[in-house]
Design goal:
By secondary structure, the protein is of the alpha+beta class. 39% of the residues lie in helices and 13% in strands. The radius of gyration is 24 Å and the shape is globular. The protein starts with 17 loop residues before the first strand and ends in a 31-residue tail after the last helix.
């Protein structure tokens, strides 16, 4: 396959990754994973690269080299350290699943970068001891979805793991149909999950591994917890707060994760493991984006409560380190663990309200805001209005008395109900006496015009499976600046989804 022009080497200076020999997982030792090499693939080629992430990591030139292609495709090893697959356990769909682990992911190691120390991981690099019944591979279809959504979420300001590149290969991989292999290079300060803590709480004969994990995470990522009377409790509270911020971010952009198992929850409060995700088209709080979620456990409206449930699972994983002697308060470990999780509720509610307030152009907290927001969301759900288009349209709302505001009103079926709500909203805007043009500019900075709708991803996948990656690149360019107008972008990127989009289904194999 001939490389497109954007994939051909250039004269840009090539600074190779600065690998660290003493990465966090390496220091934790063999109890936490298995050293192994990725399995090579034939005829590697670039599918897509994130220039934005490469710039943040100081790897712009290197990412254009054959050495980068070989490393990120799993056909070469870093110069120092040993790749390893990590072991963890977890609850899946609310049931204890026992040992899981990196079934198709492989941590190459840690690199120093202008963005700080980052782990570089390959997804789809072959079998690991934790692959269970899987083949350890990823396919082009799912790799494109993860790559695009990782970078789209970062541009939306949602905490997330990142994706540096997709490397493709003609090697066949069987899923429902025969597909071709791909490897996504994923980047994050750490890929440690709730399930890591659960694993050592459930399987270890003593608390040494669990304590070592808590100490390593606290010392690297939560230094404010180092001097706490009990590091495990302090860590749980800090993670609860980060998770609350993450979930508020998901809800305000209409993002559905689809498989919020505890092994898919980041200890750093990042969005991790993009599988059967989806962004809302029509606003439906009961929307289930994962075709495999037959009970609707991970429906959109349930995500905040599921995250809190997952924090309870994390608390159970940390419980062996919390005793009557070291938990403080009245000496009850269970009460101490519950108290550490309690900030989740307040932080989530406050963050969600603040972000909804910003999306509607309001700058001052008001006693009636919660009712105003709730009533709007009920109207949106009743009429199944398009979430992204409607929220973006509110920046064109006029607060003038008697204004028609057809740009937004036309999205609703029950115009009388919307008109009554709009009168309340206009009065609320007039309380702040802000100029509509100034408000519009603020709102356009927090209401995206573009999100990765499933049908857009599907169109890019179909083209890529035919050897044309240009649609992946176009989408990436637009999604990297989702709040801009992009007048040259296809109109379909910001339009209502076509009828065929309603037939799309994504599942855990996506």
């Amino acid at each position: 396959m001939n490389a497109p022009d954007q994939f051909k080497p250039t004269d840009v200076a090539t600074t190779a990754p600065r690998w660290r020999a003493d990465g966090l997982m390496a220091r934790l030792g063999p109890r936490f994973g298995t050293e192994l090499s990725p399995a090579a693939l034939p005829d590697l080629h670039w599918v897509a690269r994130s220039d934005n992430l490469a710039t943040e990591l100081g790897l712009t030139g290197w990412l254009q080299t054959p050495a980068a292609l070989a490393l990120l495709g799993g056909n070469a090893l870093p110069p120092v350290g040993s790749p390893r697959a990590s072991v963890y356990s977890g609850h899946q769909f609310g049931q204890w699943a026992g040992q899981l682990g990196d079934g198709r992911a492989l941590l190459l190691g840690e690199i120093d970068s202008p963005a700080g120390v980052q782990e570089l991981q390959l997804k789809g690099a072959g079998l690991t001891p934790y692959s269970r019944m899987g083949d350890g591979r990823a396919v082009l279809r799912s790799s494109i979805r993860e790559f695009l959504c990782s970078e789209a979420m970062a541009a939306l300001g949602i905490p997330t793991t990142r994706a540096l590149a997709i490397v493709g290969s003609p090697a066949p991989v069987r899923r429902e149909l025969m597909e071709t292999a791909a490897v996504v290079s994923r980047v994050a300060p750490s890929f440690i999950r709730f399930g890591h803590f659960e694993h050592f709480a459930h399987t270890a004969s003593d608390t040494s591994a669990l304590q070592a994990l808590v100490d390593a995470v606290v010392e690297r990522f939560y230094p404010a917890c180092q001097d706490a009377p009990n590091r495990a409790l302090a860590l749980l509270e800090a993670v609860s707060r980060r998770t609350a911020v993450l979930l508020a971010g998901w809800q305000v952009v209409g993002f559905c994760h689809g498989v919020m198992n505890t092994d898919n929850m980041s200890i750093l409060g990042l969005t991790i493991d993009y599988g059967p995700f989806g962004f809302l088209d029509a606003f439906d709080p009961a929307h289930i984006c994962n075709h495999s979620d037959h009970q609707g456990r991970y429906a959109f409206s349930r995500q905040p409560n599921v995250a809190f449930w997952n924090l309870h699972a994390l608390a159970q994983g940390l419980q062996p380190l919390v005793t009557a002697a070291n938990c403080g308060g009245d000496g009850d470990p269970i009460d101490a663990l519950k108290a550490a999780m309690e900030p989740y509720k307040t932080v989530f509610a406050e963050t969600l309200q603040a972000r909804l307030r910003a999306k509607l152009g309001l700058t001052v907290d008001h006693a009636d805001d919660a009712d105003l927001f709730d009533d709007l969301l009920r109207l949106m759900a009743q009429d199944r209005v398009d979430y992204t288009i409607t929220m973006r349209g509110f920046s064109r709302f006029s607060s003038a008395d008697g204004a028609e505001n057809a740009v937004v009103q036309d999205q609703f079926i029950d115009r009388a109900k919307f008109a009554a709500w709009a009168d309340r909203y206009a009065q609320r805007l007039r309380l702040e006496a802000s100029v509509d043009t100034d408000r519009a500019a603020r709102m356009d900075r927090v209401n995206p015009k573009f999100v990765l709708r499933n049908h857009l991803a599907e169109s890019a996948i179909q083209s890529a499976q035919g050897g044309d990656f240009s649609e992946v690149h176009r989408l990436l360019n637009v999604l990297s600046k989702p709040y801009d107008e992009h007048p040259d972008a296809p109109a379909a990127y910001a339009a209502l989804p076509p009828d065929w989009a309603h037939q799309l289904e994504v599942s855990c194999s996506s």
